TrEMBL record:
Pfam families tied to this protein: His_Phos_1
Taxonomic lineage: Bacteria, Pseudomonadati, Pseudomonadota, Alphaproteobacteria, Rhodobacterales
Listed name of the protein: Histidine phosphatase family protein
Source species, domain of life: Bacteria
Length: 171
């Protein structure tokens, strides 16, 4: 939970997806074994740090839905509002910002895709994490960034404070 006057974004790229079935459309690709493990680890990490989303805005693609299902399987105390947003599938950074501005809860998790999510993540904080992989935003990468605002409509790029950055698929 975030204190009054703050908003927290947990921005996650979906975990590693499978490429072994060439007949599947990109939208329908599931997670592979490593991705399923990473998504579960992400849920455990979030629970251990108290990162409890009150609202989840997720791309409807199979791999993003499966990422959320694995994260939600961790011992999170809050059961968030869950919204699937068609525009998050391969969204541009501006689209992601517009979607974020429609959020209603103080702590929001967005689950999306590259290449847009990497650029969006880099635009949010005043100072980006020093991690050399941050700008690539690999699969299962998660940025936790706080904003000193009362409403998501007021969020602006460059005004966030990084609270955490973790990447679990980059092994």
């Amino acid at each position: 939970m975030t204190p009054s006057g703050y908003r927290r974004l947990i921005l996650t790229r979906h975990a590693k997806s499978a490429w072994d079935d060439p007949t599947l459309e990109d939208f329908d690709r599931p997670l592979n074994d490593r991705g399923r493990r990473s998504a579960q680890e992400l849920g455990d990490f979030m629970a251990s740090r108290g990162y409890e989303p009150e609202e989840v805005i997720c791309s409807p693609a199979r791999r993003t839905r499966e990422t959320w299902e694995r994260v939600a399987g961790a011992p999170l105390e809050v059961r968030p509002i869950l919204r699937f947003e068609d525009k998050l599938f391969h969204a541009r950074p501006q689209d992601m910002l517009d979607i974020l501005k429609s959020a209603t809860e103080p702590t929001v998790m967005m689950i999306g895709h590259n290449p847009g999510i990497a650029e969006f993540a880099a635009s949010l904080p005043a100072r980006v994490p020093l991690d050399p992989e941050f700008r690539k935003f690999p699969t299962a990468a998660t940025l936790v960034v706080d904003f000193q605002i009362d409403d998501w409509k007021d969020v602006r790029p460059g005004d966030g404070s990084v609270m955490d950055f973790v990447r679990l698929d980059g092994r």
